[in-house]
Amino acid sequence: METFAEVRQHILEHHSDNHALFIDEPFQIAFECEIEGNDRKQNIFLAELKSSDNRRYIRVETLVCPLEDFDAEKCLRINLILRVGYLAVGDLDGIAYIKMCENLPYDSLDGQELEYVINQLAPMADRMEQALENGGDFA
Questions:
Q1: Which one of 18, 62, 71, 99 is separated from 91 by 20 to 30 angstroms, measured CA to CA?
Q2: Beta strand pairing status for 56-66 and 95-105?
């Protein structure tokens, strides 16, 4: 994949039954990802980023829980053991949230890698959300 249009097309082609885009902007899309094995869903956001040296990346991210519900130090400890993705903090409607993210360089991006990351992040974030929020659902 070399462009964000190709990323969008991949999501539409491979997930048209399961995923409807609820954000569809030139360099950002979002959809609900069904969590296999239960009736829960996790919102997945994809956006194109550019580094200071003009390298382009796709960021895949999903919300976990409000930051006030979790210790930031624990996030850093969890980051140490994660093999796919990392925890970060971002705002949603003025509230700080813990997010699970991964940045994929376009240089090596293909559909298989994109699917692998989505299929790792969505259920992992959902399990963390359930554990932290006693079965609640923020994302």
A1: 18
A2: antiparallel
Below-50 pLDDT ranges, the chain: 138-139
Report if residue 116 sits inside a domain: yes
Terminal alpha carbon distance of the chain: 27
Whether 69 maps to a domain, the answer reads yes
- Output the domain CATH number for residue 31: 3.30.1460.10
Identify the pLDDT of residue 17. Answer: 61
When divided into structural domains, the chain yields a total of 1
Query: Are residues 78 and 86 in contact, defined by beta-carbon separation less than 8 angstroms?
Result: no
pLDDT at 18: 53
Beta strands 28-34 and 95-105: pairing type?
Answer: unpaired
Tokens 């949603």 -> residue: 92
The pLDDT value recorded for residue 14 is 80
Question: Model's pTM, two decimal places?
Answer: 0.88
Domain of 113? 4-132
